[in-house]
Amino acid sequence: MNRGPDGKRRSVTIHDVAREAGVSRGTVSRVLNGGHYVSPAAQTAVNNAIRRTGYVVNRHARSLITGRSDSVAFLLTEPQERFFEDPNFNVLLRSCTQALAAQDIPLLLMIAGSEDERRRNLRYIQAGHVDGVLLVSSHSGDPVAGELQAAGVPVVACGKPLGQQARIGYVAADDREGARDMVRYLHASGRRRIATVSGPPDTPGGVERLAGYRETLAECGLPADDLLIATGDYSRASGEQAAELLLRRAPDLDAVFVASDLMAQGVLDALSRAGRRVPEDIAVGGFDDSPAALSTRPRLTTIRQPWDRISKEMVRMLLARIGGEEPAALILPTELVRRDSA
């Protein structure tokens, strides 16, 4: 803020920046709108002047010129309570916010867990209030991804957008190989009745992690037994219910690969209540390496998803899409983290 002739504080304007930098107002404007046709020396002078004067871009005025909102949506297609329960969403949101902040772009959190919320959020997005969407937790058959793509809205998904992989860019952890690593580890530790609690079958994690589990059982010479497979919805309660079902079906099981750390918390609750010691009687392995993995007793052996890199790559790819580049896909490696539960 500067002070006017009357001594009152006033907002710093583009004219103040131009005067401080010793360049024209047009040069400052070109720097603020991408730096096209501006010499490196002039760009440096303008950026230094912006820092010295404390100038803040009027995003509304710039959007009238560029046709962009200079903001991005983080669209979670899950019920609101899942956002607060599942620590993965909070980690991903924080990391995406930080990555966008480095580009001076604000992030809008939007939750579309019901049909009304979906319609309302889609109307807002399609009206041009954001330049692109980071789509999180899409389900097969969910119309959101297709509607955004049909409307020409740049989208990058977290995880493979089932049925839309050819049209929508995405960043995913290697769910299948991560599952294979965990089952191999459980088998190498001497476990032979290895059960699993899979994720929902309409999600990429649910599909890929279950496929990795089945493939590795065959690789290890262990029979595929449907009695050793239960399905959850990534919530703690569903993990607890799935473990109770598995214990009734296969009381001789000696290991459980759980497709999320949050569900693994529920599995540990059920095993404790049943008097089963972990890992002495039954080994438990999770997936995510979320904060939930460190709050369990015993601490959870799990598969680490590289959330920081996933976030940065999603932001990078979305900004490239906004800039006109074609959709791209990136699958990142996971890592086995050994702790006390297996």
Order of helix and strand elements from N to C terminus: EEHHHHEHHEHEHEEHEHEHEHEHEHEE
Distance between the termini: 59 Å
Averaged pLDDT, please? 88
Biggest pleated-sheet summary: 6 strands, parallel
- Unreliable spans: 63-67
Strand content: 15-25%
In DSSP terms, counting alpha (H) and pi (I) runs of 4 or more, how many helices? 14
User: How many whole angstroms does the radius of gyration measure?
Assistant: 25 Å
The chain-level structural class is alpha/beta
Q: Within the largest sheet, what's the order of strands?
A: 4-3-5-6-7-13
Counting DSSP E segments of at least 2 residues, the number of strands comes to: 14
Give a structural overview.
The protein has 342 residues and is α/β, with parallel strands linked by helices. 46% of the residues lie in helices and 15% in strands. It has 14 helices and 14 strands. The strands form four sheets. It has a six-stranded parallel beta sheet, sandwiched between helices. A four-stranded parallel beta sheet has the order 9-8-10-11, with helices on both faces. Helix 1 packs across helix 3 and helix 6 crosses helix 14 (307-322).
